[in-house]
Amino acid sequence: MNPIDLVLVEDDPMVMEVNAGFIKKIGGFKICGIAKTGKKALEIIRELRPRLVILDIYLPDLSGIQILQEIRKLGIPTDIILITAAQDVETVQAGLRFGVVDYIIKPFKFERISSALNHYLTYAEQFKNRGELNQEDLDRLVKILPVTENQKSREREELPKGLREITLQQVYNFLKASKIGLSAEEVAIGAGLARVTARRYLEYLEKINRVTLETQYGSVGRPINKYKALL
């Protein structure tokens, strides 16, 4: 597959450089444009119509949400990954309503953006040369899991105190992008969380049957719990 055209929008030069380095390290993408302001971002996106935009919300002139709204208003077929320090529910919901494919909260580690971009590569490949999709294909692509009635009733319950929906999805997506089971420590490093926090989310995901737990025994030391997403 040819590299995917990508526009990177970030007003901090140092963060821009770090993110560009991450993207080049992951591979599969070509940075065809960069912008440090919202107006410049819209100008580049209108002209280049990239497949993917990595967009910061806090810019000196326009907000990332305003840019996202304008892209949708113009009907430009561009996918968006939001990268931001904003964690308030209103901002997150606004991004999701306008169809972002992922939402990464700063500060993040390489493994988190790697997970997001590798998932997007898989997503793009699945759509290539496909005339139609069946339900199983669609469920996998839009991160929807078929659930049982028992699972539905559990998921209607409020999250346990201290857990947040967006972080829960972040942990699940990171696991889903991995082809092997991961320990709580590996998930914590990859998702940019404290180990105890990652374990709480993993235990809850196991409780609602979104992940499986397997205990692995080595030749020495204590057994290790490995978690794997149910696809």
UniProtKB/TrEMBL annotation:
Domain of life of the source: Bacteria
Keyword terms, alphabetized: Activator, Cytoplasm, DNA-binding, Phosphoprotein, Transcription, Transcription regulation, Two-component regulatory system
Residues found modified as 4-aspartylphosphate: D56
Gene Ontology cellular component terms for the protein in this record: cytoplasm
Pfam families reported for this sequence: HTH_64, Response_reg
Compartments, as annotated in UniProt: Cytoplasm
Listed InterPro entries: 2C-system_Tx_regulators (IPR051271), CheY-like_superfamily (IPR011006), DpiA-like_HTH (IPR048714), Sig_transdc_resp-reg_cit/mal (IPR024187), Sig_transdc_resp-reg_receiver (IPR001789)
Broad class of where this protein is predominantly found: cytoplasm
Record GO terms (molecular function): DNA binding; DNA-binding transcription factor activity; phosphorelay response regulator activity
Role: May play the central regulatory role in sporulation. It may be an element of the effector pathway responsible for the activation of sporulation genes in response to nutritional stress. Spo0A may act in concert with spo0H (a sigma factor) to control the expression of some genes that are critical to the sporulation process.
The name this protein goes by in its record: Transcriptional regulatory protein
Provenance organism: Desulfosporosinus orientis (strain ATCC 19365 / DSM 765 / NCIMB 8382 / VKM B-1628 / Singapore I)
